[in-house]
Known about the structure:
77% of the residues lie in helices and 1% in strands. It has a two-stranded antiparallel sheet. Helix 3 packs across helix 10 (204-212), helix 4 packs across helix 18 and helix 9 packs parallel to helix 13. The protein has helices at residues 15-26, 30-33, 35-41, 45-73, 77-88, 95-128, 136-148, 151-169, 172-201, 204-212, 221-234, 241-246, 255-283, 292-304, 309-343, 347-368, 382-408, 421-455; strands at 376-377, 380-381.
Amino acid sequence: MALKKNKVQGIWSSRWTFLAAATGLVVSLGNFWKAPQQLAANGGAVYLVAYLVFLLLVVLPVAIAEVRIAVRARANPIHAVDQIAHFSGAFRHWSLVTQLAALTALLLAANLGVVASWLLTYIMKMSSGVMEAASLDTIAGEFQRLLTSPEEARGAHGFFVALAVLLSSISVNRGMAMVLRILLPVLLLVMLSLLYFSYELGDYGAAWRALFDFRPGDFSWQALLSALQQAFYALGLGTAALMAYGAYFPSGRSITRQLLALAVIDTLAMLLGGLILIALVSDQHIVAGQGPALLFISLPYSFGNLAFGDIAGTGLYVLLSILVLTTVVALFEPVVAYLVERWALPRWVAAVAVGLSVFAVGEVSLASLQVASPLQWFSRTAMEWLDIAVANILLPMCALCFVLFAAWRVPKNVYGGREHWLEQGFFWLWLRMLRYIAPPALFCLLSLGLYQRLQL
């Protein structure tokens, strides 16, 4: 199958570069502010087993299909699905799925950009000692002031989006790979330092018991759905970002092994993040919460009451800011690559166009947080409605539609040859999971997840 491409984006120099780039996509805020708290609240090791089962049987097969199609097409996700559909004689508008997924990626990037502006603001707050020995009410009021008076975050928001545009403008096979090789070791060093800090000054035993004790009495059907949700979010399905990076995957390498390694890295990051955060918060004997309440109320209070907490807190917010930055750059890639390959735009022009769009949506989200903002409907802000639309509708819907295409419309030969009997056996098993396990699981995620979210 020959594909017509206007401009080649490049190939990662090695499989490790792809793994580093994909790690930048999948390891993000969810590994710190939600998944560990769900794990601790819903049975510990029982929840972890359910999470790993869903990751292996539902999420990993879909991720493998995404990267295999991208490698075969060597094009941006929209062109890749369009060309594969044409090659297989399928409905010619299957590429609408990846078009919607690319749009979803930008909407997700917009909300993440808002959270990143808060993280950057808290780097300054922690390093200046504002949180030192402050009461819980004072810290909660500080965050509430940031939410209702977004002028303080606007400068940080613009800076963050500009930085994401800069990184997205760099060529794939040279500049971006170099940046990733620098950033990821720094992230690992910061995370290990924070782990040591939490071990020495936090309640490490409480964190270990919360995450790894086997508590079946705390596990329920809602916990099962939560485990499926967290596994689904783990590898960035529904955004086409993994497909965009997969198009640059080096030939002759095992896609399955690389994605399995990526799943292991993401799970380890979730567990390490959980140990760090739960240990620090448990030591102060307060309710940790999850999401923004954890990052911007519970943790600043904990750091403010610990020796060298200002240094450790600054390091944590730097770590999280970099993780969000690498995720947003990955979310830019499907549209940036499409604009370069379809319209022959210079990469920096495409990145600026995408960045301006994301910045505009992010500004709307920020404005909706103000008191009595007209951008609030049914007691929810525009940012909350956007989060519901992306996390509970668009992401699972795009993933479900892609699975139906990849499992039932793509010919087997698109996924490559299998000469050895063991390879044939693994391919048979993978295809069965893709066809018969992933679609009903994703349908349940879409329907039950949306129902549960709207009830809150």
